[in-house]
C-alpha cells in the first residue's frame, strides 16, 4: 500500500531521446524493472499496468548530451512500498547494474544509477507521510547513509518480477544554469511550492508532497540554453489539477512565454529549453 498523499498533481511520464533504442530499452526493462508496453523502430513505451512512465525516442544522429549541460539529473521511479524497494535491491545484487549511490532522505529511501547513455535514475520508496518533518513550509530531507541490510530484510520472500502495480514516476530532478531563474519558472510561474533547499539546489512540490521536481547547478552552473537535436531529456509530462493548469497557462501568457496547446493542456519550455507538458488530470483520467 502506498504511503504517498493522494495528489492530483504530479509527474505523468518522462520522454528521453536516445541513440540506441534497443540497448536503452533493454536496460530499463532488465536492470530497472519497467515493463515494455509498446515499441516500434522509432519509439518504445515502458511502464506498468498499461500506463506509460517512460517513452524512449530513437535518434541515432543526435549528439550525445554533455553531463555539464542543463537537462536531466535523474528520473525518480517510486515503488509502492519499502518491501518492493527491498525486492529491487535483492534483484540488483544478483544482476549488478551500475548503482552509483544510495541515501536515506528521511522522507524516502533511494538508490541511484545511470542508464547506458548517461541518463540518471533514482529508484525509491517513500516513508510514511506522518513521519515527514516539516518546519516553516520546508521538509527535512537529508542525505544520510542507507541501511541496505534493513531494506533487504523488509522485502520478505518472493522474487522480483519487475515494477509492481502502483509504481510511478515520483519526481524528476533537473540540471539548470541558475537557481534564481529556476525558482522563477518552476515556483513563481508554474506554481509549485518550494519544499526544500540545499546549497545549489531547490525542491518543488504540489499538494503536500516532498517534491515532484528539483533543480540544481551542481554540474551545470552557468549552463545556457540546450542545443538540439541531442540525447537526453525531451519532455516532462506534468499531470495537473485543472486549477494548476489554468494558473500556469495564464501566468505563462502574461509573462510572454511561448506555449503550444495540447489536446489535454499545453507545452512550454523552461529557461534552458527543457520542454514541459502540462496536461489536465481530469481529462487524462477520462482518456485512460
Can you describe this structure?
The chain is α+β, with helices and mostly antiparallel strands and 288 residues long. The protein has a single domain, classed as 2,3-Dihydroxybiphenyl 1,2-Dioxygenase, domain 1, CATH 3.10.180. The chain contains six helices and 18 strands. The strands form three sheets. The protein has an eight-stranded mixed β-sheet. An eight-stranded mixed β-sheet has the order 6-7-8-5-11-14-13-12. Strand 2 and strand 3 form a beta hairpin. The longest helix has 14 residues. The protein is globular and about 55 Å long. The N terminus is likely disordered.
Keywords:
single chain; 288 residues; alpha+beta; 8-stranded mixed beta sheet; 18 strands
Topology:
Layout: E1 10-18, H1 21-32, E2 35-39, E3 43-48, E4 51-58, E5 71-79, H2 82-95, E6 99-104, E7 108-114, E8 120-126, E9 134-135, E10 138-139, H3 148-154, E11 168-175, H4 179-189, E12 193-198, E13 201-205, E14 213-216, E15 232-240, H5 242-254, E16 259-261, E17 265-269, E18 275-280, H6 281-287
